[in-house]
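quick one, 438 residues, struct below
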Amino acid sequence: MKVSVLVLASVLATLGTGAFAQAKEQFFPVLSGRTGPVAPNATPWANGHNDYMKLVNARGGINGVKTLVEECETAYATDRGVECYERLKGKHGGATVFQPLSTGITFALTEKVPADKIPMITSGYGRSDSADGGVFKWNFPLIGHYWVAGDTVLQHIGKQAGGMDKLKGKKIGVGYHDSPFGKELLPILQERAAQYGFTLQLLPIAAPGVEQKATWLQVRRDQPDYVILQTWGVMTPTAIKEAQAVGYPREKMFGTWWSGAEPDLKDIGQGAKGYSAVMMQHGAEPNSAVVKDILDKVHAKGQGTGPKDEVGSVLYMRGVLGALLATEGVRSAQERFGKGKVMTGEQARWGYENLNLTQAKLDALGFKGVMRPVSTNCVDHMGSAWARVHQWDGSKFIWTSDWLQADEQVIRPLVKNSADKYAAEKKLTRRSAADCQS
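---
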């Protein structure tokens, strides 16, 4: 009888330990795009995200709370993204935060997350107006949105021209994915065109973008002074090859941050030399401390998510940054709701709204030279508006600009006006001061 009691006690202890371990996992769902027209670009993002989550665990978790990741494949299709969201939102104790990696999916989920009380990080994509936390309580376009990309790439072009005033009378072509993603760039370009007196030649490109001959014949005929690309996946290398075919100089072509990564250019090589793209702070970062940590603590132990040779590449790093922001928001929430505890989506939302990633914190996490401080509040859900431009030298990217900061005096009114319009359409009221404190 005593033996049976001891055995039972042992079993209960084991079960208790298992239950405790389960309770100490923070669930981060991943809406991946490993298939379809954006697979070469979305795959390294997911690999970087998942590797950083593994690194967090190797470092001891978020104050002892381990990360748990589960993927659901969207193939960059909005309907599949919504299905994945519904499938994952309640799993493993409930989702902490979603990162859709798709503007179409973001638009759809913006309608759903408030009721489910799950935040959404959309770094560099989604709704630019969701930087206004007074209307978009659950959306966080942390460290940049499309209007930051558009403004900073224009600043770079202006500097090359000898000053923004020198853009007067110029023509700028805009090749864009004919979808909410592509069109989201246009308001800032139109605002700046009116301000500085240049004209825009709009060049919508139907997805997936493998047929662009007519577009580039139009470019050859009209000879815009510059071309900006807001493209993604196979659309980008196709655009660069077609520009090459019609003799449009790659030195006059500038991508936004989803249009300037290694998968876009590596197969074109020297033919893409001179092409530039604005980057959401980071670029390829093979020498960064965080990459060395991932190689040492994840890949060296045979736990890497993807191939070792992509670690540190542009889109891999964007996935790493996504995971950094996701986990540090939880760490911020723990400061208020309890260190070492698993945070609910609602608690994590507070963490993303009260994020304070100082340079010292970033450096300690291995991001020295990779990114700048991020600080959010109730009204500002973006927290940083810095960017840099890199250029393809035929085999790799090199930095060709100093740090650029989007002009908040121009962008903030655009954000507020668009957010107010959304609120009116959806019959929403702005958050009260009390809501901001809660």
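The first helix runs from residue 2 to 23.
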